[in-house]
């Protein structure tokens, strides 16, 4: 299936279903959560009557029907391909428009407002957590900005039990989702592996989008700098970066700058600088045959002994052992 054919195909799948029919035909069990009756769903409405067994399953939100308060034992991602959609999660009403999506955790009560025939809302069931700490950990060694963004995402998701992404319709998220749907609805050899790869690209793109969005948010009304601007400065100047030089660059008192960093990231300037230097050392260990003393000097350490100590604290391994395990040469 080509992407240009997808919208017509999705329109051909559209159907309506009311709450009475849902409860009659699917016979969901329910439990009391916070004094409310919450249905337990484990099926997709328009793909199969069988329990969801695949790692990824895609269905379409039926029109003219509200989905009652429910939860399930899988992660659900709802994506607005066309039109709008309203989701209520734990009492919070969330309006979504074209190109936006919401990721809802397992066992999280939520309901969905009725959509129209003009709306196309995609429900994606994820048995594998593509935003788990283990998945996201692959990004943490890239930069302190990535690490900050990932920790923020995980904290927000843990607190709210869902994540909202609003990249907008002029973002390549729509194109990635189209590729996933084409592969799902027109299965071929290795479709499962290709879908899995697209999902990694999707969530990597969403993390990048969150990064770009955060970099536009000023720290306060008196200054146009953001926390990401500070982290980017450390990334680019880690070899000889100092709090005094950084303060001069941004026009802040060093002590005040230190407070902003600690408050925003939970880490001190020294800790952030240390992490960035060691991240760069890890990259050099994996991607070069430079002697370890030269790598230590290259990333800003004058003492090889101190470098070994700090590297082991962060990576729980010696530089030599790390190179043996991760070298791509």
TrEMBL record:
Keyword DNA-binding: yes
Domain of life: Bacteria
Domain HTH araC/xylS-type: 228-325
Gene3D superfamilies with a match to the protein in the record: Homeodomain-like, Jelly Rolls
Keyword Transcription regulation attributed: yes
Coiled-coil residue windows: none
Keyword terms of this UniProt record: DNA-binding, Transcription, Transcription regulation
Name the UniProt record assigns to this protein: AraC family transcriptional regulator
